TrEMBL record:
A cellular component term, taken from the record's GO annotations: plasma membrane
InterPro entries in the record: PTS_EIIC, PTS_EIIC_3, PTS_IIC_cello, PTS_Sugar-EIIC/EIIB
GO biological process: carbohydrate derivative transport; phosphoenolpyruvate-dependent sugar phosphotransferase system
Keyword Transmembrane helix appears in the UniProt entry: yes
Molecular functions per Gene Ontology: protein-N(PI)-phosphohistidine-sugar phosphotransferase activity
Function: The phosphoenolpyruvate-dependent sugar phosphotransferase system (PTS), a major carbohydrate active -transport system, catalyzes the phosphorylation of incoming sugar substrates concomitant with their translocation across the cell membrane.
Start and end residues of each PTS EIIC type-3 domain: 8-413
PANTHER family per record: LICHENAN PERMEASE IIC COMPONENT, PTHR33989
Membrane-topology descriptor: Multi-pass membrane protein
Lineage: Bacteria, Bacillati, Bacillota, Bacilli, Lactobacillales
Entry keyword set: Cell membrane, Membrane, Sugar transport, Transmembrane, Transmembrane helix, Transport
Superkingdom of the organism of origin: Bacteria
Keyword GTP-binding: no
Protein name: Permease IIC component
Natural source organism: Enterococcus termitis
Amino acid sequence: MNGFVLWMEQHLMPVANKFGSQRHMVAIRKGLIATMPLTIVGSFFTVFQNIPIEAYTKFITPYLPVLDIPSRYTMGILALYATFGIASALAKSYKLDSLSCGLLALMAFLVTAAPPTRVLEDVTDVISAGRYINLANLGSASLFGAIVTALISVEIYRFFIVKNITIKMPEGVPPEVSNSFIALIPGAVILMLFWVIRHILGFDLNGFLSTILMPLKGILAGNSLFGGLLTVFLICFFWVLGIHGPAIMGPVIRPFWDMSIAENVDAFTNGVSANNLPNIFTEQFLQWFIWIGGAGTTLALVVLMMFSKSKYLKSLGRLSFLPGIFNINEPIIFGTPIVMNPILGIPFIVAPLVTTTLSYFLTISNVVPMMMARLGFAFPAPIAAWMSTNWSITAALLVCVNFAITLAIYYPFFKVYEKQQLDKEAEELAAEQAAKEAV
């Protein structure tokens, strides 16, 4: 194990550092990390809405619309916050006005991703006449579009600054006023560019990015091991790129997932044994056997982080443990981060492929039954697997085995990343001490 860690330090780390220190990659990482407080707070509200206790569910049902608001305006519009964060971070790296760049990128993203819908007349007492934006267009499904929009907007702004094509104010004008006038020309160009592309030419950037990344339907529709592994790989791969994997895959695979679990439930109701149901690769198979703690089986990483020597990783791990138990892992994906992280991205993809293969062969050999129920995503995995396979103890045990396997796969990569983080924290501490001594 130590030899493997040493090999990664000597061969993987130089490549990872070069990739990770690239200006635009750093901006993406910083912008996503800036959303961490929002995702953590939003995660807890999601947990509170999905506690699997019948009496509790009945009690909070009348309040669900109100309880849903915090999560909708945190994780639900994550791409909106990420746009501002990424643009601001990139602007700072160029020593540009980060506030102006962030606002211009935000404008460009809204023009591109969230065209308003106009309602001409009141619809009973529910909707009044006016213009509305679909919040779903601002969520993590649009995150890749947000990244591209933010980077392009800042580069356009930088071009005009470098070429000195700006409106200059007299000396003595406050910087905030001067910066506003400087942003006028690049702001107009950014607005016109994205407006023409989206609304005159009709080119949907987010839709285009989804299309070129979306795999063919036929490959993912089957019930074979290859189809299951490909689905798992693509979901994890998209997450590593900063794209909401299930949201991208949803239009393709969700109808088949829904059909598969419906067929299983119907067959089980008609007396078919849970070991002989029609479909293995339902969404529930992935949810309970593979996504332990969320996509990428990140609960294992959370546990490792909880005992880390790094203060940052330890704090984030402890904050993320409770959401992770209920399969909410946005704080880990965007806070660690796993997005655009070539070190932790490897086990994030590899571990689920290993556990998917094991779970598949145990299922076809009748050691573990198939899924015959559809439970909410916020159930702890061992309990949900136990209930969803007609109370199979072996299913619950498989969850524990998969967790242990994932823990072992994550460990060497985590140690490399932990060392990197410790070095960073030591440098920051030394800088702080040097600053104090200088004073």
